[in-house]
Amino acid sequence: MSKTYDRAYFDKWYRSPAHRVGSRAELARKVAMVVHLAEYYLARPLRNVLDVGCGEAAWRAPLLQLRPKLAYRGLDASEYVVARYGRSRNIGLATFGQLAELRFDERYDLVVCSDMLHYVPAREVARGLSGFVDLLEGLAFIEVFTARDDPGGDTQGFIARAPAWYRARFAAAGLLACGSHAYLSPRLSRSVAALECLPARA
Fold this sequence. Notes:
methyltransferase activity, transferase, methyltransferase, Methyltransf_12, SAM-dependent_MTases_sf
């Protein structure tokens, strides 16, 4: 059965007390961790963020609370999301695979891809990653769950891949693992210590 990312989907998984996973406080802590980690490696405040598979842009408000002048751009494949929030929250219509071709006027200090790649077919993951580092100036937060994890929440369409599957593909894309779902652009590779980051190899 194909999934529809409509208002009912987001009401259930993001707003319903009986089904939602996580809380606003938990998200705020996660966003704060990612912002400060990105700024540590960039050695300056964040200027812009690209949020891929952003849904209704849950990350936008806590990001702007921390950095009010931040330029936020979201991308999502949900026509509902773009119709309802595209203009007010700066969300464009795009799939992960389209990162292979999508380019903007600037690269992004932070690229967020939270809790969505484990629903994406393998061919589309590979296609999107082929263009990933061209969009990334600093740090990517790629939160993904594997066959070893209990993803919780919405398991319809969950693809239980081995951790090594993702590590191999992230490494092939040139991303450097630095822990807690965070990966550095190869542009920062000369500014990190030998044991600080490793290629995300299997």
